[in-house]
Write a structure and sequence with these properties.
Blueprint lengths: L1 H12 L11 H7 L9 E9 L4 H21 L3 E7 L13 E7 L2 H5 L2 H10 L3 H13 L1 E9 L7
């Protein structure tokens, strides 16, 4: 269980390095492309909390994760940060409680997690309390997924 928690914790702190792409021939040619350094890189992070725990989840995000993301914005590593929640309920298999969109400076910055550890130590000098609180955010999650997204030109 602790290795599962470690995997989820790493994924929630940053985007997953592995991206699964499915589709036809048009997608397979793009699947081999790597995101360009120096070009903004957007990721949508979806979170589904156990029923009745969505308020606790967002409270813990605001307490422990948002300060880190704000610091990354101050450093210019994140260009834009936004969050939404659905207005109405969806079917359970497609349900999510919060969607956080992060636009990183580029793909290199998005995958560089070394910087985050120093930021967490700087922002949370009481590491004992931080390490006690932070696992709870993942315990109450039923699902979490990160999807790198890119704009699609609708006009030719």
């Amino acid at each position: 269980m602790s290795s599962d928690l470690s995997i989820r914790r790493a994924g929630a702190s940053r985007i997953c390095a592995t991206i699964a792409l499915a589709g036809g021939v048009g997608h397979s040619a793009r699947a081999a492309e790597r995101p360009a350094e120096g070009r903004p890189y957007a990721v949508e992070c979806d979170y589904r909390a156990s029923w009745g725990h969505d308020d606790e989840f967002i409270w813990l995000c605001r307490k422990n994760h948002l300060p880190v993301l704000k610091k990354l914005m101050e450093e210019g590593r994140i260009l834009k940060l936004s969050a939404v929640q659905p207005r109405y309920h969806a079917a359970e298999e497609g349900r999510w409680d919060y969607r956080v969109t992060i636009i990183f400076k580029d793909a290199v910055v998005a995958h560089d997690t070394a910087f985050d550890e120093g930021v967490r130590k700087e922002l949370f000098p009481d590491q004992e309390a931080f390490k006690k609180d932070e696992p709870r955010r993942f315990e109450i999650l039923q699902a979490h997924w990160d999807v790198p997204v890119e704009d699609v030109a609708l006009e030719e």
